[in-house]
Protein backbone atom coordinates (compact mmCIF):
# COMPACT_ATOMS: atom_id res chain seq x y z
CA UNK A 1 0.00 0.00 0.00
CA UNK A 2 1.02 3.56 -0.53
CA UNK A 3 1.41 5.61 2.64
CA UNK A 4 1.31 9.39 3.02
CA UNK A 5 0.85 11.95 5.81
CA UNK A 6 -2.68 10.65 6.43
CA UNK A 7 -1.51 7.05 6.81
CA UNK A 8 -2.27 4.10 4.53
CA UNK A 9 -3.92 5.01 1.21
CA UNK A 10 -7.02 2.87 0.52
CA UNK A 11 -6.81 2.88 -3.30
CA UNK A 12 -4.91 -0.43 -3.65
CA UNK A 13 -7.38 -2.12 -1.32
CA UNK A 14 -10.28 -0.55 -3.25
CA UNK A 15 -9.13 -1.96 -6.59
CA UNK A 16 -8.08 -5.33 -5.19
CA UNK A 17 -10.29 -8.28 -4.42
CA UNK A 18 -8.58 -8.95 -1.12
CA UNK A 19 -10.57 -10.43 1.75
CA UNK A 20 -8.55 -8.66 4.41
CA UNK A 21 -6.26 -5.73 5.03
CA UNK A 22 -3.83 -5.18 7.92
CA UNK A 23 -3.66 -1.60 9.20
CA UNK A 24 -1.78 0.15 12.00
CA UNK A 25 -4.14 3.14 12.37
CA UNK A 26 -2.70 4.67 15.56
CA UNK A 27 0.77 5.06 14.03
CA UNK A 28 1.52 3.69 10.60
CA UNK A 29 4.35 1.21 11.13
CA UNK A 30 6.99 2.44 10.44
CA UNK A 31 6.37 5.92 9.08
CA UNK A 32 4.29 7.09 12.02
CA UNK A 33 1.30 8.89 10.51
CA UNK A 34 -2.06 8.49 12.25
CA UNK A 35 -4.76 7.19 9.92
CA UNK A 36 -6.97 10.18 9.09
CA UNK A 37 -10.72 10.03 9.89
CA UNK A 38 -11.74 10.05 6.20
CA UNK A 39 -9.37 7.14 5.51
CA UNK A 40 -10.83 5.20 8.44
CA UNK A 41 -14.33 5.64 7.07
CA UNK A 42 -13.18 4.67 3.60
CA UNK A 43 -11.44 1.45 4.67
CA UNK A 44 -14.54 0.48 6.67
CA UNK A 45 -16.82 1.28 3.75
CA UNK A 46 -14.74 -0.86 1.41
CA UNK A 47 -14.58 -3.75 3.88
CA UNK A 48 -18.32 -3.63 4.49
CA UNK A 49 -19.03 -3.44 0.76
CA UNK A 50 -17.36 -6.73 0.02
CA UNK A 51 -17.51 -8.56 3.33
CA UNK A 52 -13.77 -8.19 3.92
CA UNK A 53 -12.01 -7.87 7.27
CA UNK A 54 -9.70 -5.21 8.63
CA UNK A 55 -7.03 -6.34 11.07
CA UNK A 56 -6.30 -3.36 13.30
CA UNK A 57 -2.82 -3.88 14.73
CA UNK A 58 -2.84 -1.41 17.62
CA UNK A 59 0.69 -2.11 18.73
CA UNK A 60 1.35 1.26 20.42
CA UNK A 61 -1.93 3.17 20.58
CA UNK A 62 -1.27 3.95 24.27
CA UNK A 63 1.58 6.21 23.28
CA UNK A 64 -0.09 9.09 21.57
CA UNK A 65 1.82 12.23 22.52
CA UNK A 66 0.19 15.01 20.58
CA UNK A 67 -3.38 16.03 20.04
CA UNK A 68 -6.50 14.33 21.31
CA UNK A 69 -6.75 10.60 21.87
CA UNK A 70 -8.09 8.83 18.79
CA UNK A 71 -10.39 5.88 19.28
CA UNK A 72 -9.80 2.48 17.77
CA UNK A 73 -10.95 1.85 14.20
CA UNK A 74 -12.69 -1.20 15.63
CA UNK A 75 -15.35 1.06 17.19
CA UNK A 76 -16.53 2.08 13.71
CA UNK A 77 -17.34 -1.46 12.58
CA UNK A 78 -17.08 -4.11 15.31
CA UNK A 79 -18.25 -6.83 12.92
CA UNK A 80 -15.66 -6.07 10.24
CA UNK A 81 -12.61 -5.21 12.34
CA UNK A 82 -10.37 -7.60 14.25
CA UNK A 83 -8.57 -5.54 16.87
CA UNK A 84 -5.19 -6.63 18.24
CA UNK A 85 -3.46 -5.02 21.22
CA UNK A 86 -0.20 -5.96 22.93
CA UNK A 87 1.91 -5.21 25.99
CA UNK A 88 5.03 -5.42 23.85
CA UNK A 89 5.45 -1.64 23.77
CA UNK A 90 3.93 -0.77 27.14
CA UNK A 91 5.58 -3.46 29.31
CA UNK A 92 7.95 -5.83 27.52
CA UNK A 93 7.87 -7.85 24.28
CA UNK A 94 9.19 -10.94 26.04
CA UNK A 95 5.94 -11.28 28.01
CA UNK A 96 4.18 -12.42 24.81
CA UNK A 97 0.86 -11.04 26.02
CA UNK A 98 -1.73 -9.39 23.85
CA UNK A 99 -5.46 -9.32 23.29
CA UNK A 100 -7.94 -9.51 20.45
CA UNK A 101 -11.41 -8.05 20.07
CA UNK A 102 -13.06 -10.04 17.31
CA UNK A 103 -16.32 -10.05 15.37
CA UNK A 104 -18.81 -12.49 16.86
CA UNK A 105 -18.68 -14.68 13.75
CA UNK A 106 -14.92 -15.17 14.10
CA UNK A 107 -14.75 -15.85 17.81
CA UNK A 108 -14.88 -19.64 17.72
CA UNK A 109 -12.52 -20.15 14.76
CA UNK A 110 -9.99 -17.75 16.33
CA UNK A 111 -10.13 -19.45 19.72
CA UNK A 112 -9.60 -22.78 17.95
CA UNK A 113 -6.70 -21.45 15.86
CA UNK A 114 -5.05 -20.08 18.99
CA UNK A 115 -5.52 -23.41 20.79
CA UNK A 116 -3.88 -25.26 17.92
CA UNK A 117 -1.08 -22.72 17.59
CA UNK A 118 0.29 -22.91 21.12
CA UNK A 119 -2.20 -24.61 23.47
CA UNK A 120 -2.61 -21.45 25.53
CA UNK A 121 -0.76 -18.59 27.09
CA UNK A 122 1.13 -18.59 30.38
CA UNK A 123 -1.44 -18.16 33.14
CA UNK A 124 0.76 -16.57 35.79
CA UNK A 125 1.72 -13.65 33.59
CA UNK A 126 -1.93 -13.21 32.56
CA UNK A 127 -2.98 -13.07 36.21
CA UNK A 128 -0.21 -10.61 37.01
CA UNK A 129 -1.31 -8.39 34.13
CA UNK A 130 -4.96 -8.61 35.24
CA UNK A 131 -3.91 -7.48 38.72
CA UNK A 132 -1.85 -4.65 37.25
CA UNK A 133 -4.86 -3.48 35.22
CA UNK A 134 -7.50 -3.80 37.94
CA UNK A 135 -5.35 -2.05 40.56
CA UNK A 136 -4.92 0.97 38.29
CA UNK A 137 -1.14 0.53 38.26
CA UNK A 138 -1.11 -0.23 34.54
CA UNK A 139 -2.81 3.11 33.78
CA UNK A 140 -0.38 4.94 36.05
CA UNK A 141 2.53 3.19 34.35
CA UNK A 142 1.24 4.15 30.89
CA UNK A 143 0.82 7.79 31.92
CA UNK A 144 4.33 7.93 33.36
CA UNK A 145 5.90 6.25 30.34
CA UNK A 146 3.96 8.39 27.90
CA UNK A 147 5.50 11.50 29.42
CA UNK A 148 8.95 9.95 29.55
CA UNK A 149 8.83 8.67 25.97
CA UNK A 150 7.47 11.97 24.75
CA UNK A 151 10.45 13.79 26.26
CA UNK A 152 12.80 11.23 24.73
CA UNK A 153 11.17 11.52 21.35
CA UNK A 154 11.38 15.32 21.47
CA UNK A 155 15.05 15.21 22.51
CA UNK A 156 15.80 12.75 19.72
CA UNK A 157 14.05 14.89 17.13
CA UNK A 158 15.87 18.01 18.38
CA UNK A 159 19.19 16.19 18.08
CA UNK A 160 18.34 15.07 14.58
CA UNK A 161 17.30 18.57 13.58
CA UNK A 162 20.76 19.88 14.31
CA UNK A 163 22.63 16.86 12.92
CA UNK A 164 21.59 13.88 10.67
CA UNK A 165 22.12 10.17 9.67
CA UNK A 166 25.39 8.29 10.60
CA UNK A 167 26.83 4.83 11.28
CA UNK A 168 29.30 4.32 14.13
CA UNK A 169 28.47 3.03 17.63
CA UNK A 170 24.78 3.93 17.59
CA UNK A 171 22.39 1.22 16.44
CA UNK A 172 20.60 2.47 13.36
CA UNK A 173 18.39 0.22 11.25
CA UNK A 174 17.63 1.06 7.64
CA UNK A 175 13.99 1.59 6.72
CA UNK A 176 14.50 -0.51 3.58
CA UNK A 177 14.67 -3.63 5.68
CA UNK A 178 10.99 -3.32 6.52
CA UNK A 179 9.81 -2.79 2.97
CA UNK A 180 8.09 -5.27 0.66
CA UNK A 181 8.73 -4.65 -3.02
CA UNK A 182 9.26 -1.25 -4.62
CA UNK A 183 9.47 1.66 -4.25
CA UNK A 184 11.54 1.50 -1.11
CA UNK A 185 11.45 4.42 1.28
CA UNK A 186 14.87 5.61 2.38
CA UNK A 187 15.60 6.43 5.97
CA UNK A 188 16.58 5.07 9.34
CA UNK A 189 14.48 3.74 12.19
CA UNK A 190 15.44 5.12 15.60
CA UNK A 191 14.15 3.72 18.88
CA UNK A 192 14.24 5.70 22.10
CA UNK A 193 12.68 3.36 24.63
CA UNK A 194 15.55 1.03 25.46
CA UNK A 195 18.47 2.99 26.99
CA UNK A 196 18.41 3.45 30.75
CA UNK A 197 17.20 6.86 31.77
CA UNK A 198 20.66 7.91 32.97
CA UNK A 199 22.27 6.73 29.69
CA UNK A 200 19.89 8.47 27.38
CA UNK A 201 21.46 11.97 27.33
CA UNK A 202 24.82 10.35 26.62
CA UNK A 203 23.36 8.24 23.80
CA UNK A 204 21.82 11.37 22.30
CA UNK A 205 25.07 13.29 22.66
CA UNK A 206 26.92 10.49 20.86
CA UNK A 207 24.35 10.36 18.14
CA UNK A 208 24.42 14.11 17.68
CA UNK A 209 28.21 14.23 17.65
CA UNK A 210 28.44 11.46 15.08
CA UNK A 211 25.79 12.96 12.89
CA UNK A 212 27.31 16.41 12.83
CA UNK A 213 30.77 14.96 12.14
CA UNK A 214 29.10 13.31 9.16
CA UNK A 215 28.04 16.79 8.08
CA UNK A 216 24.48 16.17 7.02
CA UNK A 217 22.80 18.84 9.12
CA UNK A 218 20.20 19.77 6.56
CA UNK A 219 18.66 16.33 6.12
CA UNK A 220 14.88 16.33 6.69
CA UNK A 221 13.62 14.82 9.94
CA UNK A 222 10.21 13.20 10.02
CA UNK A 223 8.88 12.67 13.49
CA UNK A 224 6.38 9.86 13.77
CA UNK A 225 3.96 10.45 16.61
CA UNK A 226 4.21 14.20 16.49
CA UNK A 227 0.98 15.20 14.75
CA UNK A 228 2.59 13.68 11.73
CA UNK A 229 1.34 16.04 9.08
CA UNK A 230 2.74 19.10 10.80
CA UNK A 231 6.22 17.71 11.41
CA UNK A 232 9.12 18.97 9.35
C1 LIG B 1 3.69 -3.26 13.65
C2 LIG B 1 3.81 -4.04 14.92
N1 LIG B 1 2.78 -4.78 15.33
C3 LIG B 1 2.84 -5.50 16.48
C4 LIG B 1 3.98 -5.48 17.27
C5 LIG B 1 3.99 -6.26 18.55
O1 LIG B 1 3.99 -7.60 18.29
P1 LIG B 1 3.96 -8.63 19.51
O2 LIG B 1 2.78 -8.26 20.34
O3 LIG B 1 3.84 -9.96 18.84
O4 LIG B 1 5.26 -8.49 20.24
C6 LIG B 1 5.07 -4.75 16.88
C7 LIG B 1 6.29 -4.77 17.71
O5 LIG B 1 7.30 -4.27 17.40
C8 LIG B 1 5.00 -3.99 15.69
O6 LIG B 1 6.03 -3.25 15.29
Count of beta strands: 8
Beta fraction of the residues? 5-15%
State the helicity in percent bands: 25-40%
CATH architecture of the largest domain: 3-Layer(aba) Sandwich
| SS field, number of helical segments | 6
CATH class placement of the largest domain: Alpha Beta
Which stretches of 5+ consecutive residues score pLDDT under 50? 226-232
CATH superfamily of the largest domain: Type I PLP-dependent aspartate aminotransferase-like (Major domain)
Structural class by helix and strand composition:
alpha/beta
- CATH third-tier fold name of the largest domain: Aspartate Aminotransferase, domain 2
Taking Cα atoms only, what radius of gyration do you get, to the nearest Å?
20 Å
First and last CA, distance: 23 Å
Oligomer: single chain
What profile does the largest beta sheet have?
4 strands, mixed
Helix and strand element order = EEHEHEEEHHHEEH
Q: Looking across the biggest beta sheet, what order are the strands in?
A: 3-4-5-6
Written overview of the protein:
The protein is α/β, with parallel strands linked by helices and 232 residues long. The protein folds into 2 domains: 3-134, Type I PLP-dependent aspartate aminotransferase-like (Major domain) (Aspartate Aminotransferase, domain 2, 3-Layer(aba) Sandwich), CATH 3.40.640; 137-230, no CATH class. It is 36% helix and 12% strand. It has helices at residues 11-15, 37-50, 107-118, 123-134, 137-162, 200-214; strands spanning 3-4, 7-8, 20-23, 53-58, 81-86, 98-101, 173-174, 188-189. The strands form 3 sheets. A 4-stranded mixed β-sheet has the order 3-4-5-6, with helices on one face. A hairpin with a 2-residue loop joins strand 1 and strand 2. Helix 5 packs parallel to helix 6. The longest helix has 26 residues, at 137-162. It is globular and about 55 Å long. It starts with a strand and ends in an 18-residue tail after the last helix. The site of pyridoxal-5'-phosphate (PLP) has 8 residues, from loops.
Amino acid sequence: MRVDHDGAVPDAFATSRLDAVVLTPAHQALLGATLAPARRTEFVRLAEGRGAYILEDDYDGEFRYDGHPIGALQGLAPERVIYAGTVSKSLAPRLRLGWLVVPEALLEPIVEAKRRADRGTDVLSQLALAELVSSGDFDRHIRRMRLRYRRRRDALVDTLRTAAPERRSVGLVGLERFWHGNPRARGVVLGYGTPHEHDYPNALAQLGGLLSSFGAGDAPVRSPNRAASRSP
